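Protein modeling request. Please complete all fields; requests missing the sequence field cannot be processed.
Requester role: graduate student
Desired output: 3D structure, token encoding
Chains: 1
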Amino acid sequence: MMANTYQKFLKTNIDISSLGMIPDTSQTAYFCTPKDAFIIGSAGVDGIHFCFIRDFGEMVFAVNPVNTAPEFVHPLAKDFNDFLRLLLACGDTAALEQIWMWDEEEFDSFLQENPITAEQKEILDEIAEKMNLSAMEQPWQYMKDLQSSFDYSKIQYTEEFYDLVTDTATGMKAPQWNVYFDGNFWGHNGKDHAGKEIAIGKQFVWAGRQWLIPAIYVCGKGLVVDFCMQVDTTKIRAFMDKWDFTMENESHNYFSKEQQMEIETDNPLSFSFTPQLTLNEKTLQTSHGSSISYNPCLPENVINEIEAKWIIDYYGLDPDYGWMICRYAFPWETKRRPKIKTLSLTMEQQPVCVPGPHFHVASSGDIFDFIYPKTGERHTLTVREYGQQTMSTDGFGQDHWEFPTHYSVLDYTITPEIPVEALTITDCADSDDPKEKQEESFSPVVGPTAAAVGIIGSADGPTAIIFATDKQSKFRTACSALHFEPRNDVEWRMVFHEKQFKNVTVEFLS
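Delivered output (510 residues):
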């Protein structure tokens, strides 16, 4: 059942992502999501989400999979009307979701340390006006009264939840181990059967890292492979000390784009690769995958996802090390499941982003010298054409949205030539957001001279322009961010894409 106030609120098209609740239409549930829950949004971190539960009418609940048992679910408001009034008082769902574990002094301290931003105030004022609401006068007392009088035993969970057994040492024990083709570490979709496990236990060293493939799983639709990358804690601590992560700066918005690229490359618990299986001399490409990490160096007030601990326990991985665990699915190439005779794996590193120099363009003919970091050689960028363009939005089919349409186009050459895929040029600025749409800043995708131009624009973020790639052409094209008004002075950024390690092939069965 959806609350009437909630339905009314949806019609206002107010985006409350900046208040800590991102709209969620996927209804993606976790093991601790109550049965018959209707998910209305997520916090965007730690799997925290907000929902109605059919048997509780308009009451709003918060679900946090990272909490220890039995503190996964808490009521926040008697109805959505009161939920909005609480937001007007507190400014963010972070205060509401955590209030169950605070006394009033801690709650007041949190609000003082996290004041309402100008962006949040604008949204809150819009809520107050369009919904005709005022802030809750005593939010802490309201929620404490609600939670202290609530009968938590009436919440019904799925069978998956009840398969978990309470344990005084760890909080919860793992459910029965099952791996599905259309699944990940947190669950699966559909009614397919769990795969048959084949123990592999293959260890190897690649890219300066110790790897383990503990098992593969033979499923109806294909093979599933688990990859475990071991990380020494000294590397994790050095990374955490270098970037001094805190609750305040953990958001990507805190760091510049160059810093974000460096963080992604530095992070010892992050390594992007593409696997390819060779089964009976036939190649299988991966169709999808997921990853999870285990960090033994987290502060006491931050815990790993419980699913990561279950994986560590099931495979007998050493908990004194950090681990990145990836699960990839490989569909069969034939309609019938083949008999496995030989099996090998090739792993290819995905290129990392290396930020390069910035530059400005005044007119055609401008020349900029730069050093290609992979070789240390000097190259020259020559501007062939440079100018303003306006994009048509006729094909969007969303007349009630207003999109930015002005952008700059840079045509250029590189001498001596370097591979097209090794360099992109982007605008240092972000595109303007479509009006009344969720902010999710990113720059246009760039490449060589366009053979075709595509437009991306949706409710999830600003519009970008994508130029098709022609690797045979010596001419390249970059486009700036999109804006509502033309901008003459664009600051361009070079980004190099480098593979640091050669591919490796590992034999499983031969």
